[in-house]
Amino acid sequence: MLESWMILIASIICEVSGTSCLKLSDGFSKIIPTVSVFVFYGLSMWGLSVVLKKMDVGVAYAVWSGLGTAIVVLIGIFFFGERITPVRFCSLLFIVIGVIGLNYSPGAQ
């Protein structure tokens, strides 16, 4: 199970990297970030598909999408100059709480 979690974390990192490269690609007008988008998203999907062999789809996808979203929001704030507002902060907190709740709920693998 630890191996599945490590692959899931790697998939999240790839998904976040792909999303960051999507921003940097400037509408697919810059070649290196554009190619990186497809490489990172492909690796992310592959990793998630491997994880789903051993982990509940609800938990795996919630962790993958929730943590990915939270990390992308933080990257937007710290690297792309996006604003943090009280509503955005609370929403981010709810995402994290939801992921934790799904992970530790009865029946979760």
From TrEMBL:
Annotated InterPro entries: EmrE-like, Small_drug/metabolite_transptr, Small_multidrug_res
Topology relative to the membrane: Multi-pass membrane protein
Location relative to the cell: Cell membrane
Keywords: Cell membrane, Membrane, Transmembrane, Transmembrane helix, Transport
Annotated GO MF terms: transmembrane transporter activity
Biological processes annotated in GO: xenobiotic detoxification by transmembrane export across the plasma membrane
Membrane-spanning segments: 31-52, 59-80, 86-104
One GO cellular component, as annotated: plasma membrane
Primary subcellular site in the record, as a coarse category: membrane
Domain of life assignment: Bacteria
Family from the record: Belongs to the drug/metabolite transporter (DMT) superfamily. Small multidrug resistance (SMR) (TC 2.A.7.1) family.
Protein name stated in the entry: Small multidrug resistance pump
Protein species of origin: Desulfovibrio gilichinskyi
